[in-house]
Design a protein that fits this description.
This protein is an alpha+beta fold. The protein contains 9 helices and 23 strands. It has helices spanning about 35-45, 50-60, 65-70, 75-100, 130-135, 145-160, 180-185, 190-195, 405-410; strands at about 105-110, 115-120, 140, 165-170, 175-180, 195-200, 205-210, 215-220, 225, 230-235, 240-245, 255-260, 265-275, 285-290, 300, 300-305, 315-320, 325-340, 345-350, 365-370, 375-390, 395-405, 415. The strands form 4 sheets. Strands 9-8-12-13-14-11-10-23 form an 8-stranded antiparallel β-sheet, covered by helices on one side. The longest helix is centred in the N-terminal third of the chain and has 24 residues, at about 75-100. The two termini are about 40 Å apart. Residues about 1-30 and about 210-215 have low confidence and may be disordered.
Length: about 425
C-alpha cells in the first residue's frame, strides 16, 4: 500500500502573492541596510524594489512590528496586505474545521483578498454562524465532485498500485495520478470513476535532499548532511532533535555532528535513535541529544509557539535554507498525497510549489508565521518536516513534506519544544 509523499489532498489555482509570510531567519542585520541589501531582501519576499522606492524607504525608520519582522521598511499598502493575508489565513484554518463536515465540500483556498470555498452541492453560508460572519471574505464556487468522493478513489488505488504519485487537484476537481503505466491504474477503476481521475503517464523522480535547514548536521557513516528541524521529547523523556528518516541508512544509529559556518564538522550532538522507512506517513527520525541545553524554541528572535496546522491549499509556507539563511517560500498544493518512498510509499504527505530547496535541507522545518495581536509580535507555526523534491515526466516539480502531526505519532514523541 502506498501514498503520496509530497502532495496535499487538494490542489488550488496558484495565485501570485505579492509578499510572503515567512521572513528572513537572520534579524541581526535589519537596522543597517544598504540599498543593495534592501533590494535583495525585497526580491526574496516578492516586494516591489525599484530604485525610486528603495531611495524613499531608506529615509524611513523601521518602527512597526511588521517592519521589524520583515527586516525592511514597508510601504503602507504592503503592510496592509500582509495584515489582511495573515487574517485570511487564520480565518481559513478556523473555517476549515466547519466546512470539512459539510456534505459536498470540495476544498478551500486562501487567495490574495478572499477565501474560495468549493462545493459539489448547494450551500448556504447562513446555515453556519461562523461562515455568516465571514461572508464578505468568501466566494462560493460550484464544482462537480466532493473531496470525499475523490479521496475514496485515492484510497482504493493506494491499496492496489505501487510507484504512482496521487493527489486531489482542487482546480481540476479531479484525482491526479502520475504513473509509468496508465493501464495499470485504469484497470482498477469503473467507467464512472474514470471520469473523476486524470491519469498522466509519466516517470516520477523523488529526490531526497539529505545533507540543511536550521542547524546543519552530518553523520560520518554516510557523509550525508541533513538539517535539524524541531526539537522535542521522546516518550521516555529524552531530549531529541527531529530530522528526516532518510538521513541515515535503515537500521543504523550513527552519531551526528554540527557543521560550522565554514562547513567544517565540529561538535557531536548525539546519536540517531529512531526513524521511519519505506511505507509510512512520515519521513522522520530523531537524534537523542547529548546535551539537553542544545534545545532551541525560536528561529532567530522569533519564537516557535505552535506545531500544528490545517495544511490548507494555497497557504503560504517557508522552508529554512541553511545555504542562504533565508526562507525559501511557496504555497501548499495538496495535503494528502501519495509519493514513492524507497521501496514503499509515503502517504498523507503535503506538496507545495516551493522547489528552491537544496541538498542538505532534508529534515528542516516547513513553517508559517502569524501575528499574535495579544503579545504584539510575530510567531512561528511548524507545519512539517521537509523530505525533498518530486519531479514528473511533464516537467512539474513539487516540494514534499511530512505533516508535523504524523511525525509526532510515527516517532511516538511526547511533545515538541515550544516557546512561550
Amino acid at each position: 500500500m502506498k501514498k503520496k509523499l509530497l502532495i496535499f489532498a487538494l490542489i488550488t489555482a496558484f495565485v501570485s502573492i505579492p509578499f510572503s509570510f515567512t521572513s528572513s531567519t537572520v534579524n541581526a542585520e535589519k537596522n543597517d541596510l544598504s540599498g543593495e541589501k534592501m533590494i535583495e531582501i525585497r526580491k526574496k519576499n516578492n516586494l516591489e524594489y525599484s530604485r525610486e522606492t528603495i531611495n524613499l524607504l531608506l529615509k524611513e525608520e523601521i518602527d512597526s512590528v511588521h517592519e521589524k519582522f520583515y527586516g525592511i521598511p514597508l510601504l503602507p499598502e504592503e503592510e496592509a496586505r500582509i495584515v489582511k493575508r495573515n487574517e485570511l489565513q487564520t480565518l481559513a484554518e478556523e473555517l476549515s474545521q466547519s466546512l470539512a463536515k459539510v456534505s459536498g465540500f470540495a476544498g478551500l483556498e486562501v487567495q490574495e483578498d478572499k477565501i474560495v470555498v468549493r462545493m459539489a452541492s448547494d450551500f448556504n453560508v447562513v446555515a453556519d454562524a461562523r461562515l455568516t460572519a465571514a461572508k464578505n471574505d468568501l466566494v462560493i464556487e460550484k464544482v462537480m465532485y466532493s473531496i470525499e468522493e475523490l479521496e475514496n478513489i485515492h484510497k482504493k488505488l493506494d491499496q492496489e498500485i505501487d510507484g504512482a504519485m496521487m493527489f486531489v487537484d482542487q482546480v481540476k476537481n479531479k484525482l491526479t495520478v502520475y504513473t509509468p503505466n496508465k493501464e495499470s491504474v485504469a484497470q482498477y477503476l469503473t467507467e464512472e470513476e474514470l471520469k473523476k481521475v486524470d491519469i498522466i503517464e509519466s516517470e516520477i523522480k523523488v529526490e531526497d535532499q539529505a545533507y540543511g535547514i536550521g542547524r546543519h548536521i552530518v553523520n560520518y557513516a554516510t557523509s550525508r548532511p541533513c538539517s535539524v528541524g524541531i526539537y522535542g521529547y521522546a516518550s521516555n523523556g529524552d531530549s531529541v532533535a527531529v530530522t528526516a528518516g532518510h538521513c541515515v541508512n535503515s537500521g543504523t544509529t550513527p552519531a551526528f555532528y554540527k557543521i560550522d559556518s565554514n562547513g567544517n564538522i565540529s561538535t557531536k550532538i548525539g546519536n540517531f535513535v529512531k526513524g521511519t522507512t519505506n511505507n509510512t506517513n512520515a519521513d522522520a527520525g530523531y537524534i537523542k541529544l547529548d546535551n539537553a541545553s542544545d534545545i532551541s524554541t525560536s528561529i532567530g528572535s522569533t519564537p516557535i509557539t505552535q506545531a500544528s496546522g490545517s495544511h490548507l491549499t494555497n497557504t503560504s509556507v517557508g522552508t529554512l535554507s541553511q545555504n542562504t539563511l533565508w526562507s525559501t517560500n511557496g504555497t501548499i498544493v495538496s495535503s494528502s498525497a501519495s509519493v514513492p518512498n524507497g521501496s514503499g510509499t509515503l502517504t498523507d504527505a503535503v506538496l507545495t510549489n516551493n522547489t528552491n530547496t537544496v541538498g542538505g535541507d532534508s529534515g528542516s522545518i516547513v513553517f508559517t508565521s502569524f501575528f499574535n495581536s495579544v503579545k504584539n509580535r510575530y510567531e512561528y507555526k511548524i507545519y512539517g518536516i521537509h523530505k525533498g523534491i518530486a519531479t514528473t515526466g511533464d516537467g512539474k516539480q513539487y516540494q514534499i513534506y511530512s505533516k508535523i502531526s504524523n511525525v509526532k505519532t510515527a516517532l511516538n514523541l511526547s511533545g515538541f519544544a515550544l516557546g512561550n
